[in-house]
Amino acid sequence: MAAKSQKQEVLMRPGPSPEPLRLRILKGNPGKRRLPLNEPQPPIPPAMPEPPPHITGYASDEWWGIGPALLRLGILTECDIAAFSAYCHSYGQWRMAAEALARMQAGDPLMNAQIIKSKYGDAVANPLVSIVRKHAGDVVRYAAEFGLTSAARARLSAGGFAPPSPPSKFDGLLGGSVVPMKPRGDEDA
Predict the structure, then answer these.
(1) Per-10-residue mean pLDDT for the chain, 189 residues long?
(2) Beta-carbon neighbour count of residue 114 at 10 Å?
(3) Which of 77, 86, 127, 163 sees the fewest Cβ atoms within 10 Å?
(4) Which stretches are tagged as biased composition: Pro residues (predicted)?
């Protein structure tokens, strides 16, 4: 039994989930840890791809409104299309449910459509309220994955991509490669 629990601990690492390299670069590497620049990167599409057939209405508006910006930042890769589709779909569902609830609330100034009558005449919680809440939670969760929430943006560096700094004489010492230095006599030139 103890061996099984040790194996589970190895599979489930504590701490935050790993982030894509592009997001780590945008954040500015606050811990100054060496970034794995040889990390395999999925290809970035040359242009914003067409949305899948199930992305319609408000979801399509979100696809074309946010997608091109994510593509320009290099965050939306070919591997992220399914997750971005899920984000857009949740956004569309949330928006439709929220509008339906708002229409109901306009006609119910007393209870604000939080409680409705069941077919038996009993007062029950309006199912639209939980649908709106569920999809809003999904939207925020997916949005955080793409850096679309204010908290996620606050973690990004203000300048975006910074040009690489000139190599230091100490670069590569821990990684095994050595950066060649100028000979001492070339300092005046």
Answers:
(1) 48 62 67 67 87 95 94 87 94 94 86 84 88 93 85 58 54 51 52
(2) 14
(3) 163
(4) 39-49
In terms of residues, how long is the chain? 189
3-state secondary structure of 122: coil
Report in angstroms the alpha-carbon separations of 117 from 110, 114, 131, 134, 173: 14, 10, 17, 22, 72
CB 88 within 8 A of CB 60: yes
Rounded to the nearest 5 percent, the helix, strand and coil shares of the chain are: 45, 5, 50
Q: Which of 106, 53, 46 has its CA nearest to residue 77?
A: 46
Q: How many separate helices (H) and strands (E) can be counted in the chain?
A: 6, 2
Q: Which two tokens stand for residue 80?
A: 């992220």
What is the DSSP annotation of 10-61?
Answer: HHS--SSPP--HHHHHHTT-TT-PPP-TTS--PPPPSSPPPPPTT--THHHH
DSSP E strand boundaries for the chain: 115-117, 123-125
